Structures are given as structure tokens and as C-alpha cells.
Queue: 4 jobs
Job 1
Amino acid sequence: MRRTPADSRSTPRLRAALVALLIAATSGTAVAASPAHAAPGKDTTRFKGVNWADPRDNFADDPLVLSGLSTSDGYARTYAKASRVISDFRANLGADTVRLPVNPYTVGGSYWKSYRGVIDAASDKGFKVILSYWEGTGPRKDGLIDDPATYWPMWNTVVKAYRNDARVHFEPMNEPHGYTDAEWADIAARWLDTYRKVPRDRVFVSGAGYNDHVTSVCADPRLKGTYLSLHHYGFWKEYATYDEWVADLKVRIGDCAGRTVADEFGSPMTTGLDYNRPAPGDNFVNYLQAVTDTFRELGMGSVYWPGLRTGDTYSLQTLVGDPARPSLVTTNRSGADRLAWAWGRGGPVRP
């Protein structure tokens, strides 16, 4: 998630060079072509989820450590902690999907064995898992893949480990805003070509920019059969009405709702806002009511940002109790109601 868009640090010449290097440096070995996979079904609401994030917003130059976990924990302890968190995502929110970050430091180092405990625990609990690549910090936080020489080996490892687990899905990059729409589509197409044995309906192609529109990737025939991921946030505008937020969201989706999952959206949850009651003067209430109504109307899956992230006012869950046996409580009941509404489950309380 990005709270404020960063200026791109790459010139068009540099972007083009990086794209060429990325494609040329692919270290994954493409496997023999398999029959074309059918496009995903029109109902993406089977993805009812939340993001579980590192307190650093998932931008890191070292292993990613999700809120409540520790690099000192081995596989068994990580699996046990993750099982409790995943169970509470289901019990408290009704979630069945979790989106998790990956980066080369996590996958290529000693912590990978422990981190797999999170993925395995979620899958074993029946959750769908979306694994998304996050870039690093500082000058690397520019919307570009940090280093093709480590990016492709990372995906080789991840795909090899989870290609046969139908619950695990792959998102080649989070918010690829350093690339033009065409450049990003080229990279996504290269990912699909490299990992041809991964069914296309287990791949989430991010919308271009800050994942902020899916119309360009939806129109690219090379990406046919994949899911598309959209991000949408209320802080993008200082103020908009309910109707303006609905219109803003729909233009970013175009006619691609049947393939699109909003795998990041969110509002402040720890500041006392009531999202069940109309508040036309409040931008965030207008926003969250508009987007959850629209997701439900269009039959779109959605993955809230974040289900759990320590120190984030948007977090819909917070850790309580013994850190060795973590439990979660809901930070805003009306926010949870809106999420359930987006997922087609009942409705918010109205005055």
C-alpha cells in the first residue's frame, strides 16, 4: 500500500533499459506450452480477504516479518502463530483469502523456511493465498523491479514450492507505477510465458500505475485468462461525494469487473468513524460506503488493506493477548460490517 504517490525516479530511457534488462535477464526456465487455460469465471467474489502486512508497509531491504511474527521463530512456531491469526481472520471477519508479500530477501534467505509456515497454515485452513512481490526502500521504492537478477530466482523458488497448491495465487508485482502501461504489460506477459505451467486463473496481474486502473491490462490479449488486481483509496481525493466515488471506481474498472479483484482498499478504522451511517460531509465514509456497495453490485472480490498491520490506523484487526499465542480483535465493527456487505453477506446496520 502507498499512502502518497511517489515521484518516479526513472526517465523513459532508463525505464526502457530496465525493461529490456528484466526480460533479457530472466533466469526462470520456460516450460513446454500447455493448452490455453480458460478465463476465470465472471464471479470473483470467491476472494473475500484481507492483507496481512509487515509493520513497514511491506517495503523492506531484508526479510519481511508479518505483524505478530518474528525471525527468531522456526517453521513450527510460525505455523502455529499464523494458524491462530488466520483462524481469527475467518472468525472475526468471515474472510477466506489472505494476501501476503514476498521479496528476494525473504525467499532467498534462511527465513524462507519459516515464512512458508504462514503460507502453509493459510492453505491448510482452506484460505486462498495471494503472494505479491514488493520492492525495497529508499531509491528502490520507485515502482520498478529492484533487481531482475534476484527477482526471477525468487519467483522460481516460490512457483516451484507452490505450483501444485491450487489455493496459492501469484501476483508478479505490487503497484508497478515506475513503468508505462505498455512496459508493465510486457513484463506481466513475460512472467506468464516463463511460468506456463501455472494456470492463468491462479495469476493476478496488477493494474498499471499504483494498481489504479485495470483497463489497459484487461485489453491486452497476452494476459487473457488471468485475474486483474485493482487498488483504490479514499486518500486519493481530499473530498468526494458518494456518487463521485462510485464514478471514480467504475472508470478504473471499465468493463473488466468479471476479472477484477480489489486486492487493496481501506479507510481509517481506529479513529472512531461509523461507516454504517450516512455522513455526506466525511470523505472516508462516502468512500467506503461507495466502494463496498460497488463491489457488491458488480460481483467483485475484494481484499481489505490491511486486515492486520501493527501501527496502521487502517488495520481492521489488532493483536491482543500473549504474543506467543496471538489473538485478534476487530478495531471497528462498522468497518467489518461494510466488508461483509461487499462480500454479499447481509448488510450494514442503518439508522
Note: The longest strand covers residues 301-308.
Job 2
Amino acid sequence: MSMSTISPLLKIGLRVIGMWPGSSYGTFCWLFYMMTLVMMQYFQYSYVYAHLNNLTKLMDGLGLTLDYTLLILKLITLWFNRRIFEDILVTMDDDWKNRATDLHESVMMDKANLAHRCSNAMISVNVVATVLYFIDSHVRRRKISKDGQYREFPIQVQLPFEIHETLIFEFIVLGLFFHVLETATVIAILNSLILTLVLHVSGQIDIICQELKKISSTFKSKVFSTKPLVERHQKIISLSNNIKNYFSFIALLQFVWNSFVICSLGFMVVISLDMNMESKSGVFIQFVMPYLAVTTEAFVFCFAGEYLSTKSRSIGDAAYEAVWYDLSTSECRILLFLILRSQKRLTITAGKIMDLTLESFTTVMKASASYISVLHAMY
């Protein structure tokens, strides 16, 4: 049984890209991966620039290109906020070391196991989707080569030299596969990280609620004190603020960029419906699966913010439902301040402009649908 909310697979991924505090050669790993992303972006934007007059090819290449740009901006933001991430990890380690009872450990282990399952599932889905995409692309390229047509890369890039008729083409395709596979894994890692941190905070909130329910039996033994509850609540608020500051700008980028990415992928899905049945066979893997992946990415951020806000309000409800009338006047006054403070819910904001909620997710989807309808009218 692991004594950490962050799964081992998530730790390994953060170490590989140099984002885990104290990891060996972390700066070198981060710079190397960033260089590969920048090189890929150059070839992707070269393709976009070369097809500005073709709306179909432009939208086809713009989705993955903007997704790469969003990942670069995320990694730069997280790199400059790595001190905040280190403080978050220190606080989480203290929570694990200072678990007072078996009940605390049970609650924290339940949240940790849930976080591990969610992280592994999200990473596995992205890996499987990438492998299926390249398998479908390989099958289509073999068919094109048999027909004597021009071979294309599995993703929309334009190299400054001609290699389509040489053996180097296959090596570049293999390199693109591993790079896109790694990038899809990193995207899943960053998405699962925010969910893992929110689940840890929710575990600490559940512990406070459990302690409030034990007030009556504890009071009879004359050992009850509200001081540990207030201290734990303060730590929860501090940890939540660090998480909000760590992901605030990333959430804003997520809102802006995902609107355009969902728009471009949705446009390709709509126009693919007019193709013949033979061409539709690869539509699901080419466009629908990436569309669902990007939509899930936006949903995870909004769900994490909504879940944290809902959990934070449960502290006030648990304090009010406790047997506070058996306590002394001073203890009741402290519980009253605890209830008042819990009314200010914990949130994750998008650039301190708006809260991440499920309502925000529907706003993004509505805006993307509007853009799709406009592009389809132009098409």
C-alpha cells in the first residue's frame, strides 16, 4: 500500500520531463523535451502556413498544432511555478506523516487508491488512442503507396526537404510516433496531476467532517478540542490556494486554446460525415477520438474545480450538524468561525477571472459549437 496520493506512474512521468522537485538532471530533461516540442512546432506551423488557402487541410493540421502549443505554454508555466509545486508536495507529505488515527489513514488511502486508478486510466487511454491513430494511419499509407499516390506523414507536418520516396521516410514516421506518444502521455500526466491534488485535499476535508461527527462521544471523555480542527482547516485552505495558484494560468490557457482545438477537430468530424462509407472507416480514429480526448481534458479541469468547491462546503454542513450545543461557549464560538470560513468555498480559477465549474465546461462547448457552425457555413 503506497503512502502517497501521487501514483508511481505519475511520479515517473514527472521525473522524465524534469518537473519532479529534486530529480536528477531535471533541468536538462526539461530543456531537451522543450527543444523537441519547439522543433515539432516549426514543422507543424510550416504545414499550416502552406495550406492557409485550403480550409479543410488548415483545420486538419490546426488541431494537433494548437494542442502542442498549449502543452509548451503549460510546461513553461509549471516550470516557473515549480517552487509552488514543491510546497504542495511538502504539505502532502506532512499530511501522510501526521495521520493521527486509523480512520485518518483509511480515508487517505481510499483517496490515494482512487487517484492512482484515475491517473493510470487517463494515461492508458491516451496511449491506446495514439497507438490506434498511428495504426490506422499506417494502413492508409500502405494503401496510398500501392495506388501510386503521394505518401503523407501520419500527422500534419511539412519538412524543408523531400524524403517521401526514400527509406528515411519510415524512420521519420517512427520518430513521429514516439514523440506523439510521449506528448500524449505528458498531456495525460498534467491532467491527472490536478485531479490527484484535488483528491488529496478532499481526503483532508473528509477527515475534518469525520472528526466533527465524533464531537459528542469525544466530549463525554472531556478530551475534545477544536484546535486540531482549526489547524487542519488552515492547512487545507493553504494547500488549496497553492493548487489554485499553480494551475490558475494553465486553466486560463486551457479555456482559450481548447475552444479552438475542439472547434477545428469538430469541424473535421462534421465534414467527414459527407464522405463515402469507405472513407468513413478511419474517421472515428482520426478525428472523433482526438475530439473526445480534448473534450475530456477540458472536463477534467472543470470537474476538479467543481468537486473541490462542493467538498469545501461540506465542512460547514458537518460543523452545523455536530453536537455543538454540548460544548462550551468558547468552543462553540470557534466552530461558528469555522462555519463562516467554510462559506467561502475553495475554488480553482482560470486566470483569477472565472471559477472552474461544470457550468464553465458547458460554456466552452457552446462556444466551440458556435465556431464549428460558422466554419461549416464558410465551407
Note: The mean pLDDT is 80.
Job 3
Amino acid sequence: MSAPDLKPRDLLDLVRPDLRGFGGYKSARTEAMRGDVWLNANESAWSNAADANATSRRYPDPQPAALKTALSGLYGCAPEELLIGRGSDEAIDLLVRTLCVGGRDAVVATPPVFGMYAVSARLQDARLIEAPLVDGPEGFAPDFDAIAKAVLEQGAKLVFLCSPANPTGASIPLAQIEALLQTLQGSALVVVDEAYGEFSDTPSALSLRARYPEVAVLRTLSKAHALAAARVGVVIADPRLISVLRACQAPYPVPTPCAELAVAGLSASALAATQARIAIVIEERARLAAALSALPGVRRVYRSDANFLLVRFADAERAFRALLAAGVVVRDQRAAPQLDDALRITIGTPEQNARVLAALSAQAEAA
């Protein structure tokens, strides 16, 4: 779709009018004060009897400084370009609430895709415009003409792109994202969810931000960094948008123990171990994909840049039950659009992957 003759919009024009300049709630921890007796937040003067480290009676730093420094270094951005939240889920919700006026504005999602984009839109009463992925010889890919039409003709404010995509697995080439940005000319915020980015060779959309303030990137420590329970995710965007999002965020999003664990998990030694495990996942991904493709009853194994494989089966119910009987739990995707015969299998350890293959091989032989 060729770019129309549009006047580029200022980034903050995309924010809900009633939230431009909104100050939000000023918690006790946002006040820069010094002292050794803290009586400003109505906290207990004593620690809980079960709190061995005596650290949990105080409210946490809303944006923990050490964690913010570590994350900005990890992703190569300035601290003011980054907002820490409770996983990518909170960032998705904040973006929809901050940009979309309920009952009027719209969000674009590309099913089959991560369900939180649609959930957040519904909770905000924002219209959901679906631009379904196209299943082709190379796998599922976005329909960029449909996405652009949703923005330029239906006035969508937000576009969510998942790269690598969940549950389909493919990354979106950076040139295609840039072409979309050029077509839209700032008419919508394009959010690139890179939750699985560490497993992909495709360059991050972070490199586009210097030229396109209307692009935001989501990253998380839940996947490659093995910190899913810590619930640490970030949105990286223009500092003006980050400031608005922070004003709309709950006062204390990151518990102190989670922040401390995340900082430790981003140490040089921890990062080295993470890189080694990413390499194992990538190697196992290729091995498992090849082995699954050779099994009777497997219709298709999609190319994946993530830590999972999307697999179509001649009898997905039978395959699902065979795996459960072997103690292996996978994600049933059959209720998702275009995936009525598909399961999503996370890449496990070599031993776990062997159990997957053994269970599916046994049920194929018994057929």
C-alpha cells in the first residue's frame, strides 16, 4: 500500500487528550527526601516476623534505579526511554489505556497472536481491528496492506506487531516494519513485542527508534532470562511517551525482591549463562523441528525464531493426549484462528525434547 499524502502527527497527539499533562499519583517514594527516620508512607515501624532480611516493610522504588540501569544497558537505550512494569502484560495494558479513548479509538492486532492485545483492548472498550496473519510457504506473515488500511481508513491508534510472533514463531524483517512506519507517517503508535527476541537473528526494532518516535518496543526477562515469576518487563519508547505512561502506572509496580533478583540475573556471569542456554535452545529447536517433521501424522512444523515450535497434526487431539499420557504438557492452539489442528511445543532440555519425540513416535506406531 503506497503512502498517502499525510501530514505527520506529533507523537503526543496519539495520547488521550485528557491524559496529556496528567500528573498521576505522587507516592511517598517519588519524593526526593533524605532522612534516617521514614514516617511519610504509613509503613509499619517493624518488619514482619517472616521477613528474614527485613526489607519488605518499605514500599519499593517505583522504578528501581539499579534495575533501570541494568536494563537500559542490556537494551542499549537511555534510562529515560524505558519504563519497568509487571511483565509485558502491564506495558500492553498501559499503552491501550493511555492512547485509546473508550468507545472511540481502535487497536490493530494480527491473529493468530498473543491474546493480551485483544484482552487489553476489550477492557478499555477500544475497538479491536483484526488484520489476520497470512499463512504462506515461509510461514505466517503480517498483511501490511490490511494493517495500514486499519490505521489510515479506520483511525486505529495502536498497532501491535509480535516479532518473533507467538504462537506462529516467525520474526518480522526490520525493513517491513520500517516500510509500515513510512506508510503510516505517525498516524499510529507501532508497538513491536519482542518477548522472544533473544532467540532470533532478526535485528531488533530498537534500531528504528532514532528515526521513528512513533515506534515502541516491548522486552521481557520472562523468557530467555528465565525470570518469569519475577514479572519484569519493559516498554522502550520516546521519553515523552514514557513520561505519560509512568503517570498512568500504579505507584509501586516492581516488588523489591523481584527487582533485586532481576539485577542479579543481569550480572555478567548470569548473562553468560543465559547466552549459553539460548544457544542450546536454538540447537534443540532445529533438532526437534527436523525430528518432528519426519514423524507420521505431522502435517507441518513451522519455522521458528522463538523458543517454541508450532506444529500441525493430522490428529491434534490424539497427539495432545499422547503427550499428556507421557507427562508432557504442551499448548493446545486449536481454538485460535487458522490453527484448528495445531499444538505449540516449547523447546525444553534435550531430555525433555526426547520425551516429546518418544511419546509422539509411540502413538504414531500404534495408529
Note: Residues 9 and 187 are 6 Å apart (CA to CA).
Job 4
Amino acid sequence: MSRPAGRVLTLLELLQSGGTRTVAELADRLGVQGRTVRRYVDQLIDLDVPVESVRGRYGGYRLAPGYRLPPLMLSDDEALAVLLGLVAGRRAGLTTARLTAGETAAAKIRRVLPKDTARRLDALLEALAFTDRPGEFDTPDAGVLLTVADAVRHRRPVAVRYTDREARRSERTLHPYGIVAHAGRWYVTGKDARIGEDRTFRLDRIADARTLPGSFEPPAGPDPAQRLLAGFATADYRHAVTLRIHGTAAQIRARLPAGVAILQEHEDEHEPAAGRDRAAERWLRVELRAERLDWLPPLLASLDRPFVIERPGELRDLVVAHADRVAACARRAEPPAG
């Protein structure tokens, strides 16, 4: 922050302390001349800060009664980043339970920006269009989110009231490792002290969170985001699928990300492990869980890599049927002979 901008904020702090401040007093506190104080006051007025001029022997400047909101000394780029962040957060579901919070925050920011900057940003937001529609998200309670975040930072256990996807309510003691935002929802990963196992909980399903005495030491290993994705890939769905795909990890991850599948080295007796190049194409074992199988045949075709289906047999039948449909469509598109 530049020195003049810092002095303007210092002037505001002095005025917010109450009473009327003379020009001489303010000039002395800021280390500037009286005319510079008047220029700083004009800058605050331009920011819609209600600075009142008091005439007379003991005159000077004061704030209008009840005013406590400081201005935001933001450049155009900074203001644009903040407002676009609020818009993106609302569309991605990264907001608190009060869905209007982003809108009211943006309105407050616009009110304390210079009129010209606010007008230009309003024009951008009005002109901005998105190719996707904003989703409807189940957002967490702000108090729960902040309580759990504080427990993560200080490694404190929390007591939570949780409702699972079957609408069953329970009270649990959680050792929270971290908070993860994924696909428009908030999650907390940690150990469920009642069963002594790691679990992932949706924060919007926690009705209450209360910090408990004591502390815990988080385990070594994957970070909270990796734990969350691994949990999704091994969730208890109807079908357990095991594949072998020949390619690089990057090629496979382009279609089967960590939240969908687990990749493992496939032991090849003809190739010693010490000599493998991790960036080279090789056979990798892929494991995933799925409620339905019908989305896998076109996805495997889009990989354009050799693959073997180890299980289930039903998936092999679906892949063959998909290939037959594609071949039949290709034959119908051929022009007649002669």
C-alpha cells in the first residue's frame, strides 16, 4: 500500500475514534501539512465516507454519528477480483448457508468504492454471461464451518450432530484433519472417534459443532483432499470394477480422475520395477466402484488405449454391445457401392 493511501486510512481511524479533530492535530498525527489533510478528507468523501466539517474556534473534522464502516482502498483490478470471486463462489456453491451473503457483500463493496470504479464493475457484471447454469447446492452453516476450521487449525476434537444420506441422526466426536471443497460441496475429513476409523462428512449435514477439550495428532500420509477423492473412488456402490489399461497415468487420469478411480501398478514379470519409467506407457490396474455400468463403455472407448476387463463380466457384455452399435452406425453411413 502506498504511503498516501496508508495515511488516508490512518486519518479514517483517527476520525473513527470519536469527537472532532482539528486540522492542526490531524496534520501533526499524519506528519503532513494542513492542505494535505484537506485533500485526504476529500478522498474519504469521494469514497462516500460521511466526513463532516465543523466550523468555529474548536472546529475541524468529524464522522457522521453511527458511521463505522472503513472504505476499501482497492484498485480496479483488486475490486474486479473480489466481485468476480463472489460471483464464482455463488455459482460453484462455495458459500455459507445464507445464500444472500454473497449478494449483500458485493453490494457493500460497491457502496464504498469510488463511483466511477463501481459503475464500471456494475457494467461488467451486467454484460457477463455464463455457458452453464448455476447449480443448486446444499451449503453449510457458517457457524459450523468456522468452528470446524478452528478445530482443524488447533487440532482439537469436535462434537457434531450429523444426519447421513439415509436421514439417520447421530452424535459423533470427530478429529478433523481438514476441510475440502469439491464439486460444489464442503466436506471435512477426519477420524470418527466412536469407531476409530477415518471418515468423510458433508458439512451441510452437520447441524451443530462444538469444540471439545484436548487435542489430537493427525496421521501422516495423504492430505485431506487426497483422502476425500480416495473415499469417493472406493465408496460402497453396487458394482466393483477392475480393469487393466495400457497407457500413462496422465492418459488414464484424463478420463478417470482420482475421485472416480484408483490407479495401481500392474505387476509385469517381464519388466523389473526398478527399471520402469513412470511417464512411459505401461499396464496399470484401475479399480472403481459404480452404481451403474452404462457410462463406462463409451468412456473406455474415448480413452483409445488397450484395456482388459477383469470384472464384472456384465461390463464386458456392455462394451461388446456398444462396439456393435458404433459399427452398425458406421456401416449405415457408408455410401452405396457403384
Note: DSSP finds eleven helices and eleven strands in the chain.
